[in-house]
Amino acid sequence: MSLAIIGGTGVYDLGALTASENVDTPFGEVQVFRVKVAGETVIFLPRHGVGHSVPPHRINYRANIWALHALGVREVLATQAVGSLNLRMAPGHFVLLSQFIDWTKSRPLTFFDGDGGPVVHVDVTHPYCQRLTGHLLRAAEFLDERVHGEAVYACTEGPRFETAAEVHALRMLGADLVGMTNVPEVVLARESGLCYAAVSIVCNWGAGMTNYPLTQDEVLEIMRDQTAELREVLHRFIALHRDGNCTCAELGFPQYLSA
Ligand code: HPA
Q1: What is the position in ligand 1's atom list of the atom closest to the CA of 162?
Q2: What pLDDT was estimated at residue 19?
């Protein structure tokens, strides 16, 4: 089963780079890398582009997921920097996602926009692949109390951080984490029938939960501090036999995804 890693903020190199490749999609070209990790060649896709040049609301999510599907990828492991709304999930912790709340506003949401194509409604009751997430938790167990196996992720539009009132509202809605990139990525993965799991790195408390302003530097500094451990999690995950059952392939509509 071929695996891709979508690297978020602060995750730009994972192992020996073997090749870079440009993939054509109906939504534009995507650059991916083949990387050798734990003896396996995996595809690495830097979500924000090479050199972190694309802000969250401008990421070409459809092109990225289409490219992975076209390359024959079956499993996707995504990383993302997040702010925490949950006092148990502190900066430096690793959190696996189990649910999302979509607070985005202006992004293309789907591969199925009408326009003569089929109208489909994909099931996202459990948006993240439970089989892959279970294996990811095994790979991260060495972090002990600094890893959490489930969380509700709220995706905001960005690129600004949230207001204190927005953070307060999201906490009341039951969100544990806030970030800007996991939606629509996870939805497009489901539409394509891919297995998708996500590990978040908590970089800061949500806006208004501290008495100082939030900065990009704070986020990047924590990401830098956690890079070695994140790499270790990814290496352990890749080395695992990721067997078991899931229904991700049947829930998607990959039969409609051709150029
Ligand atoms: N809000 C949104 N996105 C983020 C945050 C945050 O507090 N931290 C890292 N990414």
Answers
A1: 1
A2: 81
Is the distance from the beta carbon of residue 177 to the nearest atom of ligand 1 less than 6 Å? no
Query: Domain of 67: which CATH number?
Result: 3.40.50.1580
Count of domains for the chain = 1
Question: Which residue range is the domain that position 104 belongs to?
Answer: 3-256
Single-letter residue type at 51: G
What is the residue whose two structure tokens read 């690495």? Answer: 44
Q: What is the predicted pLDDT for the residue at 38?
A: 80
For 120-149, b/e burial (b = at least 16 CB within 10 A) is eebebeebbbbbbbbbbbebbeebeebbbe
Taking only the tens place, the pLDDT of each residue in 50-83 is 777 888 999 999 999 999 999 999 999 999 999 9
- Collapsing DSSP states into helix, strand and coil, what is residue 189? helix
Please state whether the peptide bond connecting residue 127 to the residue before it is cis, i.e. omega within 30 degrees of 0: no
pTM above 0.85, yes or no: yes
Q: Residue 161 is encoded by which pair of tokens?
A: 């951080």
Residue to mutate (ligand 1; options 163, 181, 204, 209; most atoms within 8 A of CB) = 204
Determine which residue's CA is closest to atom 2 belonging to ligand 1: 179
| Ligand 1, atom 5, residue with closest C-alpha | 83
pLDDT band at 184 (very low <50, low <70, confident <90, very high): very high
Please tell me the distance from the alpha carbon of residue 177 to that of residue 97, in angstroms, as a whole number.
9
State residue 153's pLDDT score.
98
Q: Residue 200: which of 130, 160, 123, 146 has the closest Cα?
A: 146
